[in-house]
Recover the amino acids of this structure.
């Protein structure tokens, strides 16, 4: 089961539809997540949402409790929240991007972008970004796997040791090419050698 943490964003249901192609999806508001539900979860996905990571202390606590125990994927706001919790800094970017399709220079050797080439067109809806100058503060296990080729904005990361993944852009948008394959790649990278996710019995 995939637990989709809802930050009351209009994209949450679109994201649910994409994830449902891979497993049962349960959507919960970040203030209404109980421990019993988390025990049955094979992957946690942090949805997009308005505002900044500091506006969501409940999600920050959930992340601190469950990182390294179950695969976690952050989308847009979720991407920023994870990297901020890991030591990165959030800044306002020079250009607000809402519903804008741009290129992402991707690391084709990464688990996230297996068999996807070197450039991917992605849908971006964000006014905040991770400050590139703060990336040196992140743990060495976190690998930036995509960036804006013009401005150097980090657009995705993966930490295969702790099964953490993040996408600044929206894989559920029709403007993002191969969003389904992205989720499949992340899910495959979250499986252990027995073919189950980390917290499976």
């Amino acid at each position: 089961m995939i637990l989709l943490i809802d930050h009351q964003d209009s994209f949450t249901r679109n994201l649910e539809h994409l994830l449902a192609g891979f497993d049962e999806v349960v959507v919960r508001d970040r203030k209404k997540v109980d421990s019993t539900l988390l025990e049955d979860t094979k992957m946690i996905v942090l949805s997009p949402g308005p505002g900044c990571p500091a506006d969501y202390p409940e999600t920050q606590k959930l992340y601190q409790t469950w990182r390294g125990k179950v695969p976690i994927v952050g989308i847009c706001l979720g991407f920023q929240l994870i990297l901020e919790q890991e030591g990165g800094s959030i800044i306002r970017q020079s250009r607000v991007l809402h519903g804008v399709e741009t290129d992402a220079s991707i690391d084709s050797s990464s688990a996230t972008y297996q068999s996807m080439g070197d450039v991917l067109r992605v849908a971006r809806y964000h006014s905040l970004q991770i400050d590139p100058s703060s990336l040196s503060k992140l743990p060495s296990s976190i690998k930036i796997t995509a960036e804006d080729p013009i401005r150097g904005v980090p657009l995705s990361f993966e930490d295969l040791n702790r099964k953490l993944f993040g996408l600044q852009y929206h894989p559920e948008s029709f403007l993002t090419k191969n969003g389904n394959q992205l989720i499949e790649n992340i899910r495959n990278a979250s499986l252990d050698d027995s073919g189950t996710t980390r917290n499976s019995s």
In short: The chain has a mean pLDDT of 91. Residues 179-189 form the longest helix (11 residues). Residues 51 and 114 are 32 Å apart (CA to CA). Helices lie at 12-19, 35-39, 57-66, 77-85, 179-189.
